[in-house]
Give the backbone structure.
Amino acid sequence: MRTLAIDTATQSLSIALLADNHLVAETNTNTKIQHSTQLLPLLASLCRNVNWSVDSLDQVLVTRGPGSYTGLRIGVTAAKTIAASLDLPLYSVSSLLALAAESSVKPGDIVIPFINARRQTVFAAAYHYKNETWEEILPASHQKFDQVLAKCQELVDDLNQLRLVSPDTEVFHETIQASLGENFYQKQVDTSFIHASQLIHLPLSAEDYDTFVPDYAKQAEAEENWLAAHPDSIGREESYVERID
């Protein structure tokens, strides 16, 4: 069973090839988001290096979000196109769960993965790790980071049971320090990125090529601005294109 796994939910880009759930090759980049120009060339290079062809794949996995709008569109579109063109099964994984799995977790911990959504807001969720499985405590949502920290403290009796993980920890260093202390930041906050090779070990959702869309967890800024200017349109299935007579 040959698997292609893709993650483009943040500024990092990760592509992995696996055979029978074992890693064959992986490439990870962590630069300014250039997924649109990097993804397919990196995939082609990865396949060449291990003498695989895209035609030999058996299934495709991709992170579905939430995360970067642009990144998610690129990753999901690529995964859908490859899977549909080769008639392969397509599966998705929550990007926040994938991020939680990158933490230095121990049994019984509650893990809060988060991704910077700008303006002191984040995409975040909460998971309880026990019996080598992940139980979702709080679903993925878009919220202010200080609200996330407040919920963190409500979820545990002992802060030693809590871990935060994100590729964006430095952005929120001062906020975490003010709320939970520098000792907590140093010992229980993990700066990490999603590795596509780990998606195969997480709960997978089977997706349909025609209906699968990313989980953005919030409206795009352009949509928010349009709805703010047209409040009567909220809840109505209309185009965001304004007609001018």
